[in-house]
Amino acid sequence: MLSTLFSDPLVFVVYALALVVAISIHEFAHAWVADRLGDPTARAMGRLTVNPLAHLDPLGTLTLLLVGFGWGRPVPFDPYNLQNPKRDGALIALAGPASNLILAGALAGLVRLVPNPLLLAIATPILALNVMLAVFNFVPVYPLDGEKILLGLLPGNLAVEFTGIMQQYGTIILILLIFPFGGSSAIASLISPIISGILKLLL
After folding, report:
1. Is the pTM of this model over 0.70?
2. Could you give the number of structural domains in the chain?
3. Angle of helix 85-113 relative to helix 186-202, nearest 10 degrees?
4. What three-state secondary structure class fits 184?
């Protein structure tokens, strides 16, 4: 994506703005669900907003610009404020990628209802980046949302073991998955077909 900065600066600007929208919606959804489930931590830290300045993570944004996959600044929550920390933690994690897919679906519906070339040109990159961000975050590796979602689904003993492994090795595993060995990353090979399938369905 970063290569378009020199080949087509206008396209780069559109994608950059789309990236800001996708990450802001994603992180706001985490904060909103946490707040609804009884944890005021995100609200107190000013994260219950769609203001991009509250949500952009420098490394996650750079990674998304470079390789097409990234993340925002994680929304904190206090499990002691939740009635069912394991279940509610998974719901908070699910809210982020789910919000991106909902936005992508809404944009696809709008494009079909109003078949305007300008609208299509603006909506398509926003739609695509929301799908990319959602699918990437479903990967069950710390610190992505998929790790917390899977944690909420695992039985007690397995959940404890999985948490220990992810806390110790999760970041290293994610870096290895993202790093482009031989010109392509393992994570791209894993999720690109899923992203393409969703985009074909929507567009």
Report:
1. yes
2. 1
3. 50
4. strand
Residue with tokens 């909420």: 152
Q: Hey, is 181 helix, strand or coil?
A: strand
- 27 as an active site residue: the answer is yes
Contact 141, 171 (CB under 8 A): no
Residues 136 and 144 sit within 8 Å (Cβ to Cβ): yes
Q: Are 31 and 64 in contact (CB under 8 A)?
A: no
Q: Residue 194 has which token pair?
A: 């899923």
Tell me how far apart the alpha carbons of residues 130 and 99 are, in angstroms, rounded to a whole number: 9
Non-local CB neighbours of 176 within 8 Å, separated by 6+ positions: 186
Active-site position among 18, 20, 27, 70? 27
Instruction: Provide the domain limits for residue 56.
Output: 4-202
Which residues make Cβ contacts (< 8 Å) with residue 187, sequence separation at least 6?
69, 136, 139, 177, 178
pLDDT tens per residue across span 58-113: 877 777 666 655 667 889 899 999 999 999 999 999 999 999 999 999 999 999 99
Instruction: Name 172's Cβ contacts closer than 8 Å, sequence gap at least 6.
Output: none
